[in-house]
Amino acid sequence: MSECNCSLCRRVGGLWHYCAPEKLKVTGSAVAYRQGDCSLDTWHCEVCGCVTHWTAVDPDYDRVGVNMRMFEPVVWQDLPRKFVDGASF
Fold first, then answer.
1. Domain boundaries along the sequence of the chain
2. Which residues are within 8 A (CB) of 13 and not within 5 positions of it... i.e. 6 or more apart?
3. DSSP per residue over the chain, as a string?
4. Rounded to the nearest 5°, which phi and psi values hold at 63?
5. 2 CB-side CA count, 13 A
6. Of 53, 77, 73, 56, which Cα lies nearest the Cα of 65?
7. How far apart are CA 42 and CA 31, in angstroms?
8. CATH 2.170.150.70 holds for 2-75
């Protein structure tokens, strides 16, 4: 998992687990938002607005990010984290 301090990750409370797109199954309805550099779509729950995951705009990019904070803390609290200084880029 990674925890980034960039403005987007701070705002959405992102704690990201990465996997191949074919490993992700989303249930319920979500709405995409394409931000600034147009490289990622962040997906929000249509009901509550929480960011659930992101997908790359480039179909050849073989990774998605799942926001682990959408799960109960017992699922992720003891997993190792990598801190990313995205605010300095």
1. 2-75
2. 51, 67, 69
3. -EEE-SHHHHHHT--EEEE-GGG----S-EEEEE-TTSSEEEEEETTT--EEEEEESSTT---EEEEGGGS-HHHHTTS--EEE-GGG-
4. -155, 140
5. 11
6. 53
7. 8
8. yes
Assigned token pair, 67:
């926001």
For 28-83, the pLDDT digits (tens) are 899 999 988 899 999 999 999 999 999 999 999 999 999 999 999 999 999 999 99
Q: Is 32 within 8 Å of 43 (Cβ atoms)?
A: yes
What pTM, to 2 d.p., does this model score?
A: 0.89
Cα–Cα distance, 71 to 77 (Å, whole number): 10
